[in-house]
Structure formats: C-alpha cells, structure tokens
Amino acid sequence: MSATIIDGRAMARRIQAAVAAEAAELARAGWAPRLVSLSVGATAAAELYVRNQRRQAAAAGIGFEARDYPATISAEELGGVIAGLNADPRVHGIVIQRPLPAAIPVRALQRAIHPLKDVEGLHPASIGNIVYDDLALGPCTARAAVEILRALPLDPAGLEVTVIGHSELVGKPVAFLLMGLGATVTVCHALSREVAAHARRADAVFVAVGRPGLVTAEMLKPGAALIDIGINRVETPEGPRLVGDADFETCAEVAGWITPVPGGVGPVTVAMLMQNAVRATRMQMERYRGAYAGGQ
Amino acid sequence: MSATIIDGRAMARRIQAAVAAEAAELARAGWAPRLVSLSVGATAAAELYVRNQRRQAAAAGIGFEARDYPATISAEELGGVIAGLNADPRVHGIVIQRPLPAAIPVRALQRAIHPLKDVEGLHPASIGNIVYDDLALGPCTARAAVEILRALPLDPAGLEVTVIGHSELVGKPVAFLLMGLGATVTVCHALSREVAAHARRADAVFVAVGRPGLVTAEMLKPGAALIDIGINRVETPEGPRLVGDADFETCAEVAGWITPVPGGVGPVTVAMLMQNAVRATRMQMERYRGAYAGGQ
C-alpha cells in the first residue's frame, strides 16, 4: 500500500487563479489589494517566507511591499509603524514575518493590527470568529491544512481526527475548524500520555509540533490521511534540508494520503494569505462605502 | 462505589466571598461595579436566571438592574439600547438573557457589546482571547465547568478529557480552556460515531448537549469525573423538574465525582459572571485612568 502524495503546489495554483480574478475585479473598482510585510532582523526563515509570498502575490496581481527593520528596533517603534499602516487606506493587509527578535512581543503587535487588515488571521477577534464558524479572516496555516483535508474524498462530518500539537497559531485553530465541519477531534500535545494510541485510531492525523520524525508509520491507521504542518530545517550530509514532523518514507507506506514537506501545506498557506488579502480588501471597500457613500 | 457529589453552591459561595471583597475595594475607589440585564419577552427560563443573578449580585455587593423589553422590540431598538449602555460610564457589564425571540439576532447583539463590558465573555474577541490563554473575560458557563474540574484532586496536565457537545457558547470554550491546562481533549457531538467509546476512556467527561439521560453509567470509566453542564426541564408526575444531561442516579454509582443538576455548574456559572463583573469594572477603571489621568 502506498499513499497518494498530495500536491500542495497544484492546489495553491487553483486557489490562486480564483484569487487573481477577484483581485482584478477589486482593482477595476479602484481597490487594488496591497500587502505590507514587516521583517525584523534578517533571518533565513523569514526571507524564505517573504520570497514565497512575494511570488504568489505577483501571480495573483496583489501588491506586495516588504519592509526590513533592523533587529535593534523597539516594540514602540514597530507599534508606530503598524498604527501608520492601519490608518493608510492604500494598505489592505499587514504581515508580520516570524521569527522576531525575542525582545519584540509578537502577540501585542498582532493585536495592534486592525482586525480588517489582519490577513494572517491571528488577531484575537479573528480567532474568536472562527470559533463562531465565521470564517472572514481565518489563520492561514490552519485554514490551509483543513482545506487540504476537504479536498480529499472523505466526509469530514463524523470523521475521527487527531491533532498533534495545540499551539494557538496552528493546532487549536485546526481543531476548531474541524469541529465546525462536524469532525470528532482529539487534540494531543507534549503532555499527552497516549499520542500514538490517539493517532492510530484516527481517520486523519494533523501534526504541527516542529519535531522531525515525530509521527511514524506505527502511529497511523492504514489508509488514514496525514497532514504534516511541521517545517523543520535539518542538516544532512548533502546540506540543509526542509522536513516535516512525519517520517515521510515510512508513513507514506501506511497512510492513504500524505502531504510532503516542502510542497504540501506550505504553498497552500501562502495561497490562503492571498485569499485573505482579497477578502480583507473587499471588507475594507464595503466598510468605506458604508461609511462615506450613503450606506451603500 | 459511589461518587462524591460536587457542591456547586458551596463553591459559588467561596468565589463570591472573594468577588465581594474586590467589589468593595472598587467601590471605595469610586468604581462600584454595576450590571444591566436585558430580557426580551418574559420567559420562565430567563426569569429564573435573572433571579439567581440578582441574588448573587446582591450578595457580592454588585449593582444589578434588570430591564424587560416586550417581545415586539426590534433588533435595531435593542442595538440602540446596547450602544447607550456601552457609552454609559455607570454601567460596567451587560448581560443578554436567553432565550430571545427568534427574530432577534442574538449573536449580532453580543458583538455589539463593548468587549470591556462583555461580562458573559461571549464577544468574538473574548472567545479569541481564551484561545490565546488570556482569560480576561472568559465565557461564564465554560469557565465554571473547568473551575469545578480544577477544584478536584486531579492533575489536568495530561488528563484524558472527553467533551460531549461542541456549541460555541459552551463545548468549544470548555475544550480550549482544558487545552490551556494541558489536558488531552476530545470533542464529540451529534455527528460523532463513537461517543460512548470516547467517554469511556476519559478521566473526565464534560457534557453540554441539552438531552436528559444522554450520559449513562455504561459510558463512564469507574472513578471518572463527570461535569454535567446540561439544564433540561422535564415533566414528572410530581410536576416539572430540572435535570442535567446525565442519568444522575446510575452515573453516581460509577463516577468518582459528579455534579448535580441543579446545584452543580449553575451556581458556579453565576459566580463567574460576578467575577467577570469585577474584572470588567477594574479594566474599565484602568482604561479610564490611562486615558484621562496621565497614564496612571
């Protein structure tokens, strides 16, 4: 038995095509979507993200301005930058690239972004909305992982799903989104006693921990879907390499479907960011028209 | 084997004492906490809630004004009422009594309440904050159920917990709060295939569905904690009676701890509302001082 390898890049291209059409329509209405990315203290990981985002934005016809700040910038200065971007009608979305220097309180910055410009979907109000099944601007990585499941020939209603990792940026939002689809969801994490047993009885396993080789073939039910959200940089004799949280080679022999790393959840995540960008732009357009154009 | 019956009223009194001390301190600072309750179209259920809230508010030294509106009031008029209460510095919390007439969009009203006056903890921003483990104003019923678990001699870290019911007001928030404590959480609901199996392997079961007799003794692991959040009005030969979602008599023979209905989660929920009331008042006092008194 050998798993179907899910092509995240192809899926991202399909989403991108729809996003591009919507971006063009917004541009014709005078609302060409535009993102601003904030990086602090150049890191290789952040540069990789920025490059991928810039490429997908260009493909979708979305403006993308990447700003780099030195690692010495203060949280107050960054807060001022965000306040300026919140007030700037030519900016429709703000992306804070991770990792940030330890001295910068990333959560406070995320909260400072206006909810309508929160294209990463990480503001508490955005997270709260997905609990209410209101998916205006959901967190991109979690939405990407769940979109991949939805593209499989599995009915999410009543599906037994185990989520390994309960971070607030990924694991928890994945869990709520799955609950919203009617799945029976178990969330495991570092303190869980029986992760393997929970994984083995699941029809689908999501893993987002950041530990290479965490999920092995013995932890999977034959035919299960394995959505690997981890991205880890490991050193190999051939140089550095990106891998997920699953032991891909062995898991692919047991799973029914599996996402590769890279090329699985990652590209779909960037596509979700672009989808959020057009949604955010549309919401701002409607808010603006409601406020200034006689309630239209 | 016979379960320890958890005394929610005694627990509520303990919480209430701490709340009363804090309310008195706020009153001395010129910020006596005050709630306004909005009921629409008199219903027996809402009247019961209002009565309990009024009594606990009085015991805690919190002002409580109950307003009744006719069932014919429009959503726009109610929105106007809420806007007025948001702007009134003498009002620190707004409670919307359920049920509301079907024509009133309760969720939109909940969103209209200023997050700092959202003492029920149901605004999307409040819900999102608990995902981020920021418990400023959490939803009262979910917080009450989890407080009860925390009072038991069980370590929540690594605890296997099954939550039956995934409503956005109760089941989902219970799940996030438990995740925040390190529990391994499975959330089941109407579409789940194996609720009994999930319940039976759990160290603690939370049920919030609204169906009498849903949880039976056969669904429990001996010694497990059973937190029954359901409140159902059933007719008996002796007249109407309130029961939970568990078959109390048989479950009490298997469980290690069990909450009765009434007298379990209910009184603690009202105590949480009062705790939120003093927290909300304090946050508003600090916001006011920050804005108008030189950043103190």
Automatic annotation (TrEMBL), chains A, B:
SUPFAM superfamilies: Aminoacid dehydrogenase-like, N-terminal domain (SSF53223), NAD(P)-binding Rossmann-fold domains (SSF51735). It comes from the Bacteria. It holds the Pfam family THF_DHG_CYH. Residues 139-284 form the Tetrahydrofolate dehydrogenase/cyclohydrolase NAD(P)-binding domain. NADP(+) binds at residues 165-167, 231. CDD domains: NAD_bind_m-THF_DH_Cyclohyd. Signal peptide: none annotated. Its EC number is 1.5.1.5, 3.5.4.9. The keyword Amino-acid biosynthesis applies. InterPro entries: Aminoacid_DH-like_N_sf, NAD(P)-bd_dom_sf, THF_DH/CycHdrlase, THF_DH/CycHdrlase_cat_dom, THF_DH/CycHdrlase_NAD-bd_dom. Keywords: Amino-acid biosynthesis, Histidine biosynthesis, Hydrolase, Methionine biosynthesis, Multifunctional enzyme, NADP, One-carbon metabolism, Oxidoreductase, Purine biosynthesis. Residues 6-120 form the Tetrahydrofolate dehydrogenase/cyclohydrolase catalytic domain. Pathway: One-carbon metabolism; tetrahydrofolate interconversion. It catalyses: (6R)-5,10-methenyltetrahydrofolate + H2O = (6R)-10-formyltetrahydrofolate + H(+); (6R)-5,10-methylene-5,6,7,8-tetrahydrofolate + NADP(+) = (6R)-5,10-methenyltetrahydrofolate + NADPH. Belongs to the tetrahydrofolate dehydrogenase/cyclohydrolase family. Catalyzes the oxidation of 5,10-methylenetetrahydrofolate to 5,10-methenyltetrahydrofolate and then the hydrolysis of 5,10-methenyltetrahydrofolate to 10-formyltetrahydrofolate. Homodimer. HAMAP family: THF_DHG_CYH (MF_01576). This is Bifunctional protein FolD. It comes from Albidovulum salinarum. The gene is folD.
